[in-house]
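Researcher: Next entry: SAM-dependent methyltransferase (Sinorhizobium alkalisoli).
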Amino acid sequence: MTSSFNVHDASGYEQLMGRWSRRLAPFFIDFAGLADGEKVVDVGCGTGSLTFALAESADLAEIAAIDYSPVFVEAAKRRNDDQRITIRQADACAMPFEDGTFDRALALLVLHFVPEAGRAVAEMRRVVRPGGVVAAAVWDHFGGMPGMRMMVDTVAALSEGGRQLRERYCWQPMMQPGEMKHAFVAQGLTGVVETELVIRMDYQSFDDYWAPIAAGEGPLGKYVATLDPAERARVDAAVRDAYQAGRPDGPRSFANIAWACRGAVV
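Model: Predicted structure:
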C-alpha cells in the first residue's frame, strides 16, 4: 500500500494536523466506544494522537499502533512510555495480525489517504473478533474544511496546477456523505452508523496556519514545494490575503467536520 499523505518532519505534521487530531480523538473514541480490558488496534497512528488518547480513556489490555510512515512510527515510539502500547511500521491493507485478534480496530484521519481504502476496511474487519467494532473517521475536504478550502480555492484561481490540486484534494476516498457507510456495509459489517464530528481549528496568526504547508507537509505542502520562486511568492501572498480577509493578521478560527463511521463484525 502507498499513502497519499506527504510527510517530512513529525514536528511539522504536529503543527499541520497533529494538534487537531488530538482535539478530535476524544469525540471519535466516544463514538467508536471503548471498554476496560479490551485489545485495540490503531490503524494509521501517525504521531500517536489517537493511540495515547486511547490509553487515557480506558484500562485497556493492549493497544497496537501501526503506521505506514517510518517518520511517524519513530516519533510515536519516542513519546511512548506505556507498556500496553506497541508501535510498528505496517501496511493498513496487509496488517501483521492474526484474524480476530482485537476487540476494536480504529482509524482516525487515515482512510482518505489510502488509495485502496476499501481493502483497508476489509483488513480492519479481519483482525477484529466477532462482535467487535470497526470504526473510522475522515475529514470532509469538500464541504467541511473551510480553512484548507481557503488555500486550495485560492491556488485554483491562480493556475491550472492549483485547479488540479483542488480536484485531488476535494475528492479523496471515503469523504463523501455515505461513502464510508457503503464501504463498511460492502465489507460485511453490521449495524453500520455514520455521523459528523465537529471541532474548531484555532490559529494564532497566518504563520501559525501557513508554516507547515510552506515547509512541504501534507498534500497541500507537497503542491507548494513544486512551485518555482515566482509562483511560490504569488501563492504565499494570495493565501495570506485570503487568511487576513482585509483585517490585520492575528487569530482566526475555523469549524471543521469529520465523517465518522462504525460497524460490528459478525
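Model: Note for the record: The chain has one domain: 10-264.
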